[in-house]
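tool_log.txt
---
The assistant was asked to compare two proteins side by side. It first ran the structure predictor on the initial sequence, then on the second. Raw inputs and outputs are pasted verbatim so the downstream comparison step can read them without reformatting.
(1)
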Amino acid sequence: MMMKNGENKNKISYTLLRVVWKLFEADRKSRFYGTDKELFEAEIHMIKAIKDNEGIHVTGLAQLLGVTKGAVSQIIMKLQKKGMIIKETDPNNLSRLVLKLTSTGEIAYSNHEKLHQAFDDLVNDTLKDASDENVEFLGAFLSSLENNIDYFGDIE
């Protein structure tokens, strides 16, 4: 018996919610990223932001991430204690400190990038037999969903 289109769409909706939940749970896990220090999601993303924006300072990091300077400072202190980052005087502004990764921070960054590459490989492998049209449709579907998801929380 063939499934009705509406039932199939509901099935897709529930499958998508399960996938999103699994991704959320996987991303929330603390990991060591090849070091002896446990890193939490906010910490590894701070490491990534520092590496991807070489020479950034606390204020710039807060603006980039859309969080308060206090929130950035708290995570920075934890990362300093874990030996992941250092603060150095900005040669262009001696009253400001810039953030840099230590060699341990570089290892964590590199292993975090490998984790993302493994996810990219999983997606590419899953789509290896998909037609160009199906890949294009899926991309458009996910982009549309991403663009409209903010309104989802407004439902009462």
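(2)
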Amino acid sequence: MTPSTVIASAIRRERNRAGLSLSGLAAQAGLSKSTLSQLEAGQGNPGVETLWAIAGALGVPFSFLFEAPDKQPQLIRAGQAPVVQAEGSAFAASLLSAGVPGRRRDLYLVALDAGAIRTAEPHPSGTMEHALLLDGYADIGPTDAIARLGPGDYYHFPADVRHRYATTDRPARLLLVMDATG
């Protein structure tokens, strides 16, 4: 399965579970019906914001949109994980592992270009993020508690408030774990 077909199948599956029509989900997510229809057909290249809007409208964790129906062992070689690019910023994330039902934990490898700034809207109540910087330097955290991280630094912070990721004049990579307890 390609990343597009996994996302298409997951959107359709979750929309059906929620009992929503294409029009209903499109309206709740703030998307056009044709855009949503294309995504369910495995066409298009949705950005992070589009997928977050769909997940939010469905009331499911973001990772559910990357969940293939078959749970066989999976090896992801470096550089081969599906990448979702943010719209309007140099932020790219690869979902490496999604949480299982009842345990909402997602694991991402995040790549930030030099000079990137990504401001994230609050996630559901109780969500925490764990960031481990692998390479480069980045300013990360809630907008009122940003911390400068260097290689090997770890920062655990509430993500149910606006938060951001910003790099210096060098690219950065980080391991990001989203833990939704609420």
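---
observation on (2): The mean pLDDT is 84. The chain has two domains: 3-66, 84-180.
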